[in-house]
């Protein structure tokens, strides 16, 4: 019986190792496009539609129905905002909630998700058709497009998107209270903004100076909350306790409204969710 020579053994061993290496490469190396498709298919995205309003490179409107004013244009919102239909706006209780959206069906879609905040209400035709309708700012809508195709993409009109609720994250930003211009010693009203986490609010309470009692504030409109003051019992400085709509976590901004508070002023707290 003859046996292969040493050179033959080396040839066989080399061939076996090459085949084994090729099989490993074939099993573990998958084109990135296929990986992206697989990941996208497992994402917990829900169907919705999107449009845009305002200036092509703008912030939709000046705060709109939530009352954030020109803050929608500046950090941390940075014009990455949207109006929402009734299922998203929730009578104002949806103000401040953050969502991730992505589009894939239009040829100009980047297929890269963006995150934006609900800052306005989309009435009228936003109630027709899909149960969830995002009316994005021109800036946010353009951010869904491939580089250099934002203007072309905005001409698409209404598009199908996927969306999911995400936590708001405003680095190095604390909750801010903007005092309404109509506030006075007998009436206190403020817009509350920049809440991390849930972003929205279900309950706001005020504690006067020298008291351990939390007084419930009423939602006036959008992100604006109000309370009637009865001096001398209800006097500043005021602490304010916030409770989000879903998680029900609480946050207390101690003495955030000073003794000399004034209408039209903004007071930034030291805390955030």
The strands making up the biggest β-sheet line up spatially as: 1-5-2-4-3-6
What are the segments in which pLDDT stays under 50 over at least 5 consecutive residues?
1-42
Number of domains: 2
CATH architecture of the largest domain: Beta Barrel
Question: From the alpha-carbon coordinates, what is the Rg to the nearest angstrom?
Answer: 27 Å
Largest sheet: 6 strands, mixed, barrel
CATH superfamily of the largest domain: RlpA-like domain
Subcellular location: Secreted
Keywords: Secreted, Signal
Domain Expansin-like CBD: 186-269
Protein name: Expansin-B4-like
Written description of the protein model:
Its main location: secreted. Keywords: Secreted, Signal. It is found in: Secreted. Residues 63-173 form the Expansin-like EG45 domain. Residues 1-29 form the signal peptide. The protein is of the alpha+beta class and 273 residues long. The protein has two domains: 46-165, Beta Barrel (Barwin-like endoglucanases); 176-268, Immunoglobulin-like, CATH 2.60.40.760. It contains five helices and 15 strands. It has helices spanning 6-28, 32-42, 86-89, 138-142, 150-154, and strands at 46-53, 81-84, 98-102, 114-121, 133-137, 159-166, 176-179, 187-193, 203-207, 215-216, 218-221, 224-228, 238-243, 251-257, 266-268. A six-stranded mixed beta barrel has the order 1-5-2-4-3-6. A five-stranded antiparallel sheet has the order 11-12-8-7-15, with no helix packed on it. The relative contact order is 0.15. Mean pLDDT is 86; it is low at 1-42.
